[in-house]
Design goal:
Helices cover about 80% and strands about 0% of the residues. By secondary structure, the chain is mostly helical. A two-stranded antiparallel sheet has the order 1-2.
């Protein structure tokens, strides 16, 4: 138990360092009066959007919490679930809010720091991004440790000592639904906002009017900069908060079940993922201080500076894991440590693979840029092809992580690969691999949040008319930010796949709890044999619910899950398209009706474009978000447990591959445009540049709306299924 206190300690340390980095950033100058004015416009727009979004989300949360309260009243749900749901959503939203607030204060300061040196700009932007990373892990570990202490005090001891911990961990798991719901609204709403503004600014400003990116004459440029913050900072923060909590809590629930026969080891198995995450916080902070570069650094050297911090933190976590699991008394502590390392390595491989396919330092993105010589159609074809090919590295990395983390956890007992005991231990190994992948989230999320800060810094430098040397430095930081954003999305998607698999296993544990809560103490199998529900393991429930590929309910559920990923992408892409059309018309209207915009004597109506993006995002985010919540409930009521397991498997497989494709294709299109702008193939203003701008515009909703939202869809549908397990086992049509 004494090691568990590292968890609340790590949360306090993370939040203190986040505050330290925030205060250090605030001491820096924002630069000229024009830089300060532009930064204030972006801040006001971002806060205005979040205020509107939180109003809508609050209404949805109140309605869902009331539904959970009614379910709890009728014995279909644990009484703590409504409160856990609200707390998960609250902390997820809070993490996004703090991260975005920091980012909007950091952008002008980063641009001003770049007036002095590239290294100063990099460090300021990166440590400001670290505020997001440390706030996410700090609030997550605080929420987890607080709920453990509360439930440990209030949940009564049962006849079976092991049952109390199973109740505690499955209850804690449900606050992940609150975090997932908030994350989906933040990701979808923020993604629609930012891409409506971005597409409008690019198509009318750069292609039609021929003015540079982030030019102050473009009416949509402030909305575009606001969107970077609400989508890529607040949205990503809420997303990874949920993944981080979900992986830890799903693994804790699997540990409580796998080691139920030994009360001491059961408690240690519950604490292990939390303590590994806590150690990861301390080592992430160390890694943050290792990020620095030379002033004349090129793209590869800048990326190496960031990778140095991430890889060092990951290496030290791998070493620390051996000590933690040994001290906790695991018989197979070496094997489980290698399960954690499997997850860590998968995260690093996914990041490196994404960098290769999306950075203009490498051939895939340069080939897309070259295809612009023959027009926008070949840019789009080349980008789609590159995105599809790029899926093989993340998919293979996750597949190998699943296989090896499972095998290490069962001591490579291949003869009894899926026996009752080995199945539980192997699934615990997969869960702890997901924790390993996310253990260094404090620094990996910092590299991701760095991207929009650098992007906004470049925008501020352009709009403020800073010198070409400063713009060259901010362009270098921005280009690096495009790659880190792409690798961050790849990392988020990969971690979502492992987390969702752990949640899938936890669903069965929640089914067991639901049956016992409803008084079903005995399972009667198809062959007439019976066994106590409390004694049933994962394999027994697979047999009881006939979860096989020959069961039509499983197959139908699988197809519905695969379909959900495609439909969800279609809804979010069309939402961006409709919102972008409004933005394009508005920018054209302002160029037409407000005299003197293009010659610099007139002032665009920035507020009108911000208003269009805000209203469009609020309106368009509801349908896809609510569909993700309703579908698992409907499938559970129609097809039962077998159908839900098929649904979750289908959306996991198709959603994972589709998300990687969309994120990487979008990132590659963006950096292909940047490569042309570096005086390649004709440079800015050439026909090749216009072709790559079109490709980048197509890729915008790919990489910033639909792709990143898919990983939340996968986890949210799993979380909804877990929370609604009591309803599913009490009644289904088939």
């Amino acid at each position: 138990m004494s090691l568990f206190y590292l968890v609340p300690l790590a949360s306090i340390v993370a939040l203190l360092f986040a505050y330290h980095f925030f205060r250090s950033m605030m001491k820096e100058s924002e630069g000229t009066s024009q830089m300060i004015k532009i930064a204030q416009h972006v801040r006001d727009g971002a806060m205005s959007y979040l205020k509107q979004q939180y109003k809508v989300v609050t209404i949805v949360f109140v309605i869902i919490a009331l539904v959970f309260a009614v379910m709890a009243y009728f014995g279909l749900q644990n009484n703590w679930v409504p409160f856990a749901f609200i707390s998960g959503g609250f902390f997820s939203g809070l993490a996004g809010f703090f991260g975005m607030k920091t980012a909007t204060y950091a952008s002008a300061r980063t641009a001003n720091a770049a007036r002095h040196s590239l290294n100063k700009g990099l460090q300021l932007a990166f440590r400001s991004g670290a505020v997001m990373g440390l706030v996410v892990v700090g609030l997550a570990l605080f929420d987890i440790s607080a709920w453990y202490f509360i439930l440990d005090y209030f949940v009564k001891d049962t006849v079976l000592a092991s049952h109390k911990l199973i109740m505690i961990t499955t209850t804690m798991l449900t606050f992940g639904m609150g975090a997932s719901t908030q994350a989906l609204f933040a990701r979808v709403g923020g993604g629609i906002y930012t891409k409506a503004a971005d597409v409008g600014a690019d198509l009318v400003g750069k292609v039609e009017a021929g003015i540079p990116e982030d030019d102050p004459r473009n009416p949509a440029t402030i909305a575009d900069n606001v969107g970077d913050n609400v989508g890529d900072v607040a949205g990503m923060g809420a997303d990874l908060y949920e993944s981080y909590c979900g992986s830890i809590l799903a693994t804790a629930a699997l540990g409580a079940s796998a080691y139920a026969a030994n009360p001491i080891m059961q408690k240690n198995a519950v604490f292990a993922p939390m303590i590994i995450a806590a150690i990861g916080v301390f080592l992430s902070i160390l890694g943050i201080y290792l990020v620095r570069t030379k002033d004349d650094a090129d793209m590869k050297q800048l990326m190496s500076a960031l990778n140095r911090g991430v890889i060092t933190s990951s290496f030290l976590v791998a070493i620390g894991t051996f000590g933690i699991l040994y001290l906790l008394g695991f018989q197979n502590w070496v094997g489980l440590s290698f399960s954690v390392i499997s997850g860590l390595l998968a995260g690093i491989v996914i990041g490196q693979g994404t960098e290769y396919f999306t950075s203009h330092s490498y051939n895939p993105t340069r080939k897309i840029a070259k295809s612009g010589v023959t027009g926008p159609a070949t840019v789009i074809i080349s980008g789609i092809g590159t995105g599809l090919i790029s899926t093989f590295i993340p998919v293979l990395a996750v597949c190998l992580a699943i296989i090896f983390s499972y095998l290490f956890a069962i001591n490579f007992d291949i003869q009894n690969l899926v026996s009752g005991t080995n199945l539980s231990l192997g699934l615990y190994g997969i869960g702890i691999a997901a924790v390993g992948m996310l253990s260094t989230l404090g620094i990996t999320l910092a590299t991701d949040a760095y991207g929009p800060i650098a992007d906004n810094a470049g925008g501020n430098a352009e709009m403020s008319g800073l010198g070409p040397e400063v713009r060259q430095r901010t362009d270098a930081l921005d280009s690096l930010g495009n790659t880190t954003a792409a690798t961050g999305k790849g990392f988020a998607i990969g971690s979502a796949a492992l987390t969702a698999l752990a949640l899938l296993a936890s669903y069965i544990e929640e089914i067991k709890i639901g049956l016992m809560r409803l008084g079903h103490q005995v399972l009667t199998f198809a062959d007439g044999q019976t066994m106590n529900t409390a004694d049933a393991n994962f394999a027994n429930f697979m047999e009881y619910y006939q979860v096989t590929l020959m069961n039509p309910k499983v197959i139908v559920g699988f197809f519905l899950g695969a379909m959900m990923a495609a439909v969800f992408c279609g809804l979010t892409m069309n939402a961006v398209g409709r919102a972008a059309q409004e933005m394009v018309e508005e920018v054209r209207r302002q160029f037409r009706e407000i005299k003197g915009i293009l010659d610099g004597t007139g002032t665009p109506d920035y507020a009108r474009c911000v208003e269009i993006s805000t209203k469009s995002a609020q309106r368009e985010m509801l349908l896809p978000s609510l569909l993700a919540i309703i579908t698992p409930i409907a499938v559970g009521l129609l097809l039962g447990v077998a159908g839900v397991l098929g649904l979750l498997t289908g959306v996991l497989g198709s959603g994972f591959v589709l998300a990687v494709f969309m994120a990487n294709a979008g990132g590659a299109w963006d950096n292909a445009k940047k490569y042309v702008e570096m005086d390649n193939y004709g440079g800015k203003g050439s026909e090749t540049h216009n072709a790559t701008v079109v490709g980048d515009t197509v890729g915008d909703p790919f990489k910033d709306t639909s792709g990143p939202s898919l990983n939340i869809l996968i986890k949210l549908m799993s979380m909804v299924s877990i929370v609604m397990a009591g309803l599913t086992v009490s009644w289904s049509l088939l």
